[in-house]
């Protein structure tokens, strides 16, 4: 092609100028149409359609100007091509300017098209990509003295957040993320960027007797402009009305329709004002998660149940607080607490079968029973309960994160989307962040998991769970000296006995028994943990007679903690008291005695112990069926990391089946993957001390692998003694 002649032909036929005029005109028409559509709140597809129609008109205008020309008399005729000897016409500055306009218009069109396409699936972007209809409710400031006033302000913040979360087309940042900024004087633009919202709600609460003054404003993150504000001077009788009016005001300012059920709002508005205020305070206390606060919330929920026996949320709240206290703070006797919580959950679901809070409480309680009782049915109930909570309230980040956290240990690929959805709503949810890190470990991405734990620690330096779980990761990948560093930090506040026990276990593996005993020393006087510490010392010392005596004494007590059944099982297997151990397995794991035994991969190590006991009591066939089921349940899956604990369960299973070759291969693979925890965390016993591996003890390959672990741990012990451990968290 002769480019010079082609440009001359464009000049002759006025193609460039026609295209330029069309582009400028079309863009102006689109801007006017877009403004009108947004003002009248027409659907976004109208804007996208108008842009597409106008864009398609450009090539049509170019083709028409090429094919036809307007004569001096106004007639339209076909354009004749230039003769070969015609003088070429040069493009002038207006032509080149028109070409530039067209190029810019095409680029803008492409960008706009992509933007509109994205916005068809959601709200138009605001600051930093945040949806225009997005908001975070920051913790209301309390201008009255006393802890209850602050809890009331926190609870009122949560109630407003919950009300706004019911608006279908409004994105509301989760409460955990919003409460991260409590007491922090950060710029709203930084808050908006961190929470990915375009607006924030700020407020203050002042209580004086029965008088209540609430000030609230909706602020644009982009420019700090107040879009709406209101001050409420009422009595405590109007506390619920204030919450509803704030939600209505914010929704109206953002042009989001608040579609709450009228009957439900009327019912709640008729509540006893004192009961509503108490519930708000209880929710504010639960948010703190400290032992004293949870105990106070539990007492308030008990009071609420007496005041409002038909309040499903009060029953669910009491159950949740009771379960949390008995497990996370080891307060109260286990079995009575479980029964109380179960009864309150049943009442809540009878009053409101669609209570997401009740299903969350049932999920938590079932997880606790699975942990303490090794009850596989409880594991299935936990999964079903959390899943139902998500179905009932799919925008509830707490339900999403708890379900994702639980599923991370069963099906991490399924768990990750739920956890990411929770973090999309509540980006600073520390529980969801920890759970996502755990899921990343499960899909064999430990480096990413470590980064996420470290980021969580930097954001929440007082949150011990992230430090403890980072320590667990270090154990999993064989860096026990680094695990000690994080366990120490987690154990320092002496609020979580699990951190101290994990620290002691790491010390025992590193050959530092004195340090291990020091780690658990602060818990010796605790009414529950103290006896567990005694049992751990008996296990490490190999005093199984002492362990059996202690476990039987504990089980003889009224409302005995089922935890001690495991003590009889372990001691019985070591002492040859197989019938006693079998009796306890019949209670804790009846599904193992079925013709087709059911095996949970998370309980694989305990189940190999059951198989050993069953074989020793004469039922070799059932023992072999259990071992085969264990191997099937713990079989490696593509794309997933095989946890070392499950590899060790396979070592025991193969050894009992007489397949030493595969047992050695599994142990070697476990060591290559980072297994250095020769003294396990469940039984506080060395691998080579378990009777299940007796067929391997004389094998020189087994001895060499054990020696390799010990040598590596000795090197880590020396490194730890040389470098010490950090006393504060260093940012990643």
UniProtKB/TrEMBL annotation:
Keywords: Membrane, Transmembrane, Transmembrane helix
Membrane-spanning residues: 14-33, 45-68, 96-117
Source organism, top-level taxon: Bacteria
Protein name, as recorded: TolB-like protein/Tfp pilus assembly protein PilF
Protein's organism: Phenylobacterium koreense
């Amino acid at each position: 092609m002769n480019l010079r002649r082609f440009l001359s032909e464009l000049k002759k036929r006025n193609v460039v100028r026609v295209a330029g005029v069309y582009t400028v005109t079309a863009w102006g028409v689109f801007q006017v149409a877009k403004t009108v559509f947004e003002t009248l709140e027409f659907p976004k597809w109208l804007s996208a359609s108008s842009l597409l129609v106008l864009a398609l008109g450009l090539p049509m205008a170019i083709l028409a100007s090429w094919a036809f020309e307007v004569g001096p008399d106004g007639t339209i005729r076909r354009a004749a091509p230039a003769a070969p000897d015609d003088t070429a016409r040069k493009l002038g500055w207006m032509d080149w300017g028109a070409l530039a306009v067209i190029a810019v218009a095409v680029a803008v069109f492409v960008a706009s098209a992509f933007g509109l396409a994205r916005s068809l699936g959601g709200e138009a972007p605001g600051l930093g990509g945040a949806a225009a209809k997005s908001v975070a409710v920051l913790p209301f400031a309390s201008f009255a003295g006393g802890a209850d006033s602050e809890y009331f302000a926190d609870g009122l913040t949560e109630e407003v957040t919950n009300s706004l979360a019911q608006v279908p087309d409004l994105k509301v940042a989760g409460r955990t993320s919003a409460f991260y900024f409590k007491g922090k004087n950060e710029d709203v633009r930084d808050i908006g960027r961190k929470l990915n919202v375009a607006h924030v709600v700020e407020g203050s609460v002042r209580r004086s007797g029965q008088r209540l003054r609430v000030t609230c404003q909706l602020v644009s993150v982009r420019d700090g402009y107040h879009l709406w504000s209101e001050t409420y001077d009422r009595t405590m009788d109007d506390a619920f009305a204030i919450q509803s009016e704030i939600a209505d005001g914010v929704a109206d300012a953002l042009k989001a329709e608040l579609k709450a059920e009228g009957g439900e709002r009327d019912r709640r508005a008729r509540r006893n004002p004192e009961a509503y205020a108490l519930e708000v305070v209880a929710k504010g206390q639960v948010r703190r998660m400290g032992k004293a606060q949870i105990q106070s919330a539990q007492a308030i929920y008990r009071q609420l149940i007496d005041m409002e026996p038909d309040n499903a949320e009060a029953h669910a709240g009491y159950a949740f607080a009771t379960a949390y206290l008995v497990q996370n703070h080891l307060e109260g006797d286990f079995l009575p607490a479980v029964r109380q919580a179960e009864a309150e959950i049943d009442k809540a679901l009878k009053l409101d079968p669609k209570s997401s809070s009740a299903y969350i409480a049932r999920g938590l309680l079932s997880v606790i029973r699975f942990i303490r009782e090794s009850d596989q049915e409880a594991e299935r109930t936990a999964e079903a309960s959390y899943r139902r909570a998500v179905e009932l309230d799919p925008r509830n980040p707490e339900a999403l994160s708890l379900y994702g956290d639980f599923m991370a240990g069963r099906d991490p690929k399924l768990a990750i989307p739920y956890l990411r959805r929770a973090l999309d709503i509540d980006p600073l949810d520390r529980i969801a962040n920890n759970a996502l890190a755990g899921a990343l470990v499960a899909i064999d991405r430990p480096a990413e998991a470590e980064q996420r734990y470290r980021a969580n620690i930097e954001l929440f330096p007082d949150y011990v769970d992230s430090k403890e779980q980072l320590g667990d990761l270090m154990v999993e990948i064989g860096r026990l000296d680094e695990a000690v560093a994080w366990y120490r930090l987690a154990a320092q506040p002496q609020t979580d006995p699990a951190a101290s026990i994990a620290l002691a276990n790491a010390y025992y593996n590193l050959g530092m028994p004195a340090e291990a005993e020091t780690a658990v020393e602060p818990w010796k006087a605790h009414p529950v943990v103290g006896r567990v510490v005694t049992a751990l010392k008996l296990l490490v010392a190999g005093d199984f007679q002492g362990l059996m005596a202690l476990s039987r004494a504990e089980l003889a007590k009224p409302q005995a903690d089922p935890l001690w059944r495991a003590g009889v099982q372990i001691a019985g297997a070591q002492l040859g008291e197989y019938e006693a151990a079998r009796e306890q397995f019949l209670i804790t794991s009846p599904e193992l005695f079925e013709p087709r035994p059911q095996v949970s991969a998370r309980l694989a190590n305990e189940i190999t112990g059951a198989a050993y006991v069953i074989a020793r009591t004469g039922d070799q066939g059932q023992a072999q069926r259990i071992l085969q089921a264990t191997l099937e349940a713990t079989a490696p899956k593509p794309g997933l990391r095989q946890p070392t604990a499950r590899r060790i369960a396979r070592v025991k299973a193969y050894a009992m089946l007489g397949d030493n070759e595969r047992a050695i291969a599994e142990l070697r693979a476990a060591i290559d993957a980072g297994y250095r925890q020769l003294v396990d965390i469940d039984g506080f016993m060395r691998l080579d001390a378990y009777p299940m591996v007796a067929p391997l003890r004389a094998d020189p390959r087994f001895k060499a692998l054990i020696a390799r672990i010990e040598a590596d741990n000795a090197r880590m012990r020396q490194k730890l003694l040389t470098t010490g451990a950090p006393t504060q968290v260093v940012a990643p």
